[in-house]
Amino acid sequence: MRLAALACACSLAVGLAAAGCGGQLGGGGVVGANGDAASGKQLFVEHCGSCHTMADAGTSGTIGPNMDDAFAGSREQGFEESTFADVVRWQIAYPGIGLGMPADIVTGQDADDVAAYVARYAGNPDIEPSGGGEITATEGSEVFAQAGCGSCHTLAAAGSSGTVGPDLDEVKPSHDLVVDRVTNGQGGMPPFKDQLSDEQIQAVADFVTGG
Predict the structure, then answer these.
(1) How far is CA 126 from the centre of its chain?
(2) What is the DSSP letter of 54?
(3) What is the Cα–Cα distance from 176 to 94, expressed in whole angstroms?
(4) Are strands 154-155 and 59-60 parallel, antiparallel or unpaired?
(5) Residue of 72, 78, 47, 10 whose CA lies nearest to 146
(6) Which residues pair with 189 in a beta bridge?
(7) pLDDT (tens digit, 9 = 90+) per residue, 61-71?
């Protein structure tokens, strides 16, 4: 089956294998014409960009696969956009055990939108990357949400339960440490100094530390 072959061939191999190399997506796909790529871009930035690099989204996460690299080769092989959308949608729902990515990080229409966005723009040589979705928030809680911090971190005040990065309620980082990590990144956490202003970084540090 072409979808199974794509799942096994692309650079998301480990996670997509969990979604079913040799398995099937029934009924002609799970996304169809329902996904809105324009909406999916901002959702990708907020929920996926802290872990994944994707040029059109302007994200530089390194914990998960580089989305452009993951799909570029399969595009050259002639796979269709609808097939990519189905693979991404499956991966969102069934990311695989022990891979760090939580299942259903987005759901329903939002998941369809993210799948449609990645399917259209990831590794597509015919589309010039337009850069990331703009983070316009000024309040710390909103910066935390728009920057996608909750997809990696648990923080009760934000209602987030990410498990990729440290549980912020447990580690209780200092204000200065939050500013440094948000600005410069470390390990799998990307730097946000090119996406957030100094004021936004201070605001999110205030929010995380209760300052």
Answers:
(1) 22
(2) E
(3) 37
(4) unpaired
(5) 47
(6) 186
(7) 888 899 999 99
CB 120 within 8 Å of CB 69: no
- Domain 140-209 falls in which CATH fold? Cytochrome Bc1 Complex; Chain D, domain 2 (1.10.760)
Strands 59-60 and 53-54, by their bridges, are: antiparallel
State the pLDDT confidence band at 26, using cuts at 50, 70 and 90.
Answer: very low
Provide the 3-class DSSP secondary structure of residue 22: coil
Q: What is 2-121's CATH number, 3.40.190.10, 2.40.128.110, 1.10.760.10, 1.10.1670.40? A: 1.10.760.10
* Residue from 208, 192, 197 nearest 147 by CA: 192
| Backbone torsions φ then ψ of 166, nearest 5 degrees | -60, 150
Contact 43, 124 (CB under 8 A): no
Q: Within a 10 A sphere around the Cβ of 30, how many other Cβ atoms?
A: 20
Taking phi first (over 0 means left), then psi (-120 to 50 degrees means alpha), and beta for anything else, what does residue 173 get? beta
